[in-house]
C-alpha cells in the first residue's frame, strides 16, 4: 500500500523542517514583538512593566527559555502535521481493505492489513514522542511563568517601596486602588497570560502555514452558483474564519473595560472586608455592625452589577464562538464529498482534509476565542502599569531637602503647608545638639504631626532643608507603633533584623519598659497588634529606642496611651540610658514638658515660638 509520506526518511525531513521553521519563526517573532512594543499602547505598557526582564545581566537565560519554548511549539505543530498524514494512511488502509473484501482480492487485503499495522506502530511512536514533549513543554511553561512572576513581583514590590511610594502615592492626582491586589494577583495573570497568548499566537500562525500546505494539496475546484472556486476547501476555511473573527472582535471589545471594572470592584470589596477584620474591636465598641453590613453589601452589589454586565457580554461572545466552531465540523465533508464520490480523493484524503480544516480553523480561531483572555490580560497590564506610574509620580513629588550631619539636627527655612496651600509653619529655623530635648506644642490642627511627616520627607507640601544623622541614627516613632507579622522578637526589634540582638538583651530591655510579662513569649508568632494593648505597644516602641540607640528620635504622642507614672518612667529611662540622644516630642500633655529643655509652639497660621521650657510656663 502506498503511504502518504516516505516514513523511512521522515525523521531527517522533520529535523530539517524544525530547524528552518524555528529560525524563521524566531526572526519573525522578534520583529513583530518589536513593532508591537513600539507602535501599540499596550506594547509600550508591557515594555515599561517588564522590559528589564528581557535585557541586562542574566537576560540571556530568559531568551534561552523563550527559544526552548518556541522550539517545542514548533515540535507541537510538526507532530500535528505528521499525525494528519498518519490518519490519511490509516483510513486509506480501511478503504483498501473494504475494496479488497468486496472484490475478494486477497493480495490487496494483505496489503491493507500491513498498512494498518504499520500505521498502528507509527501512531505508537508519534504519540510517545508527543507525550514526552507535552510533559517537558508543560514543565517548561510553568517554570517560565514562575521565574517571570518572581522577578516581576520583586520589581513591582521594590518599586512600590522605594522612596516610600507606598505612602506618598496618596498625594498624587491619579491615586491608584488596591496595590496589594495588583502585586499579588495581577502579576500572576500578566506573566501567565503573556506567555500563553504569545506562544498560542505563534503556534496558531505556524499551524496555519503548515496545514495550508496540506489543505492546498488536498483541495480541488468547486462550483458555487456558477462560479468555480479553485482550491475551494482552503479558500472557504480562510474566508469563514476571518469573517467570524472580525465579528467576534466587535462583540468582545467591551470585555477589556468590563474586566478592568470587575477586578477593581472585587478588590474594593475584599479591601472593605479586610478593613472590618482589622478594626473589629472598634466597630464592636461602636456597635457599628449595621452600618458596616450596609457598606459591605453596597460594595458587593456593585461587584454583582459589573458581574452581570460581564456575563451578558460574555454569553454573546461565547455563543458566537460556539456557533462558529460547531458549524465548521461539517464544512470539509460537504466541500470534499463530490470529489470523494467521483474518486478524485481517497477516504484517507477526506479524513486528512477534515483534520487540516479543523487545525486551520482552530488556529485562526485562537485569536477570536482568546479575546476574553486578552481582555483580562489588558486589565492586569493596565493595573500594573498604573501602579508603577503612580509610584514614580509619588517619588517625583517635592520633599524636604536633607543633608547628613554627624550628631546634630538643623532645620533651615522649613515651610509646611496644607494640600490646599494654606501655610501651617513658615520659615522655621532651629538647631539641636546632643542631649537636647525639644517638645512641640500647639492646638489641634496647628501642624505638629505634619511637621514630623515633613521632617521624615513624607509630606510633599513642604520645602526647606533638614540636617540630621543618616540612616538608622535617626528614628521616627508614630503614635501607635507598627508591629509586623511574625514572632514577638521581630516586633520588638523592628526595623532591625532579628539576628542582630541577643535574647538576653531583649529580655533586659523589655523588663526596663515594664513588659517583663512578655519575656518568655519572644518566639510566639501572632498578630501582636491585636494582642498588645495600645499602652503596651507604646512601651514596646520605647524598647526599640533602647535597642537602636539612635542619635536622634522623633516621638509623635508616644505616651498618649499610658498613665502619667509610666510616661515619667519611660522618658526618665531614655534620658538615663541614652543621655546624648536628641529627643523631639510632639505632645498635648503638659506632663511631657519636664523631660525637655526647649519648647516649640506652633500657632497654625505660620507663626511659631521657640524657647526654653522654663520660659513657657
Fold and architecture overview:
64% of the residues lie in helices and 11% in strands. It is of the alpha/beta class and 617 residues long. The protein has a 6-stranded mixed beta sheet, with helices on one face. Helix 6 (179-218) runs antiparallel to helix 12 (347-369), helix 6 packs antiparallel against helix 13 and helix 11 (331-341) runs antiparallel to helix 12 (347-369). The protein is elongated.
Percentage of β-strand residues: 5-15%
The mean pLDDT is: 88
Number of helices: 19
Strand order within the widest beta sheet: 8-11-12-6-13-14
How far is it from the N-terminal to the C-terminal residue, by CA? Answer: 113 Å
Which regions have little confidence, pLDDT < 50, spanning 5+ residues? none
CA-based shape: elongated
Radius of gyration: 36 Å
How many beta-strand segments? 14
Summing up helix and strand content along with how strands pair, one would put the structural category as alpha/beta
The level of helicity is: 55-70%
Major β-sheet annotation: 6 strands, mixed
Amino acid at each position: 500500500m502506498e503511504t502518504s509520506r516516505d516514513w523511512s526518511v521522515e525523521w531527517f525531513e522533520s529535523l530539517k523542517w524544525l530547524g528552518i521553521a524555528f529560525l524563521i519563526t524566531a526572526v519573525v517573532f522578534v520583529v513583530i514583538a518589536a513593532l508591537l512594543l513600539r507602535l501599540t499602547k499596550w506594547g509600550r505598557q508591557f515594555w515599561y512593566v517588564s522590559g528589564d526582564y528581557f535585557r541586562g545581566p542574566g537576560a540571556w537565560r530568559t531568551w534561552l527559555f523563550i527559544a526552548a519554548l518556541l522550539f517545542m511549539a514548533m515540535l507541537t505543530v510538526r507532530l500535528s502535521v505528521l499525525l494528519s498524514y498518519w490518519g490519511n494512511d490509516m483510513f486509506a488502509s480501511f478503504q483498501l481493505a473494504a475494496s479488497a473484501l468486496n472484490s475478494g482480492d486477497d493480495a490487496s487485503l494483505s496489503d491493507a492489513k500491513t498498512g494498518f499495522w504499520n500505521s498502528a506502530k507509527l501512531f505508537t511512536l508519534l504519540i510517545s514522542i508527543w507525550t514526552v514533549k507535552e510533559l517537558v513543554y508543560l514543565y517548561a511553561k510553568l517554570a517560565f511563568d514562575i521565574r517571570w512572576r518572581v522577578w516581576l513581583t520583586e520589581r513591582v514590590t521594590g518599586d512600590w517601596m522605594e522612596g516610600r511610594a507606598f505612602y506618598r502615592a496618596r498625594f498624587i492626582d491619579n491615586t491608584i486602588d488596591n496595590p496589594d491586589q495588583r502585586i499579588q494577583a495581577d502579576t500572576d495573570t500578566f506573566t501567565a497570560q503573556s506567555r500563553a497568548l504569545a506562544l498560542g499566537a505563534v503556534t496558531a500562525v505556524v499551524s496555519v502555514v503548515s496545514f495550508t500546505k496540506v489543505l492546498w494539496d488536498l483541495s480541488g475546484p468547486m462550483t458555487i452558483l456558477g462560479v468555480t472556486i479553485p482550491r475551494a476547501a482552503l479558500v472557504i476555511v480562510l474566508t469563514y474564519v476571518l469573517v467570524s473573527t472580525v465579528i467576534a472582535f466587535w462583540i468582545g471589545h467591551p470585555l477589556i473595560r468590563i474586566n478592568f471594572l470587575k477586578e477593581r470592584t472585587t478588590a474594593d470589596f475584599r479591601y472593605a472586608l479586610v478593613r472590618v477584620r482589622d478594626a473589629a474591636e472598634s466597630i464592636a465598641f461602636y456597635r457599628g455592625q449595621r452600618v458596616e453590613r450596609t457598606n459591605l453589601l453596597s460594595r458587593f452589589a456593585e461587584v454583582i452589577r459589573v458581574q452581570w454586565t460581564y456575563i451578558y457580554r460574555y454569553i454573546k461572545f461565547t455563543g458566537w464562538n460556539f456557533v462558529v466552531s460547531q458549524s465548521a465540523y461539517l464544512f470539509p465533508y460537504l466541500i470534499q464529498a463530490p470529489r470523494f464520490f467521483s474518486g478524485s480523493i481517497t477516504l484517507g484524503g477526506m479524513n486528512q482534509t477534515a483534520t487540516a480544516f479543523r487545525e486551520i480553523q482552530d488556529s485562526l480561531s485562537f485569536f477570536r476565542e482568546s479575546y476574553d483572555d486578552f481582555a483580562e490580560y489588558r486589565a492586569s497590564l493596565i493595573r500594573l502599569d498604573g501602579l508603577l506610574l503612580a509610584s514614580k509620580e509619588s517619588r517625583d513629588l517635592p520633599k524636604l531637602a536633607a543633608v547628613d550631619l554627624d550628631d546634630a539636627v538643623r532645620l533651615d527655612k522649613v515651610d509646611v503647608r496644607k494640600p490646599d496651600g494654606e501655610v501651617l509653619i513658615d520659615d522655621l529655623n532651629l538647631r539641636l545638639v546632643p542631649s537636647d530635648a525639644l517638645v512641640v506644642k500647639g492646638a489641634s490642627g496647628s501642624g505638629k504631626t505634619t511637621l514630623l511627616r515633613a521632617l521624615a520627607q513624607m509630606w510633599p507640601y513642604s520645602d526647606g532643608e533638614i540636617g540630621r544623622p543618616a540612616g538608622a541614627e535617626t528614628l521616627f516613632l508614630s503614635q501607635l507603633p507598627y508591629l509586623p507579622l511574625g514572632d514577638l522578637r521581630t516586633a520588638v526589634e523592628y526595623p532591625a533584623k532579628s539576628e542582630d540582638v541577643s535574647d538576653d538583651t531583649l529580655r533586659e530591655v523589655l523588663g526596663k519598659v515594664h513588659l517583663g510579662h512578655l519575656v518568655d513569649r519572644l518566639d510566639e508568632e501572632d498578630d501582636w497588634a491585636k494582642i498588645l494593648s495600645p499602652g503596651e505597644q507604646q512601651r514596646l516602641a520605647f524598647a526599640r529606642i533602647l535597642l537602636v540607640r539612635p542619635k536622634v528620635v522623633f516621638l509623635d504622642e508616644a505616651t498618649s496611651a499610658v498613665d502619667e507614672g509610666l510616661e515619667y518612667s519611660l522618658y526618665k529611662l531614655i534620658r538615663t540610658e541614652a543621655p546624648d540622644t536628641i529627643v523631639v516630642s510632639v505632645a498635648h500633655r503638659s506632663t511631657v514638658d519636664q523631660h525637655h529643655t526647649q519648647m516649640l509652639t506652633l500657632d497654625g497660621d505660620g507663626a511659631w515660638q521657640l524657647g526654653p521650657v522654663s520660659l513657657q510656663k
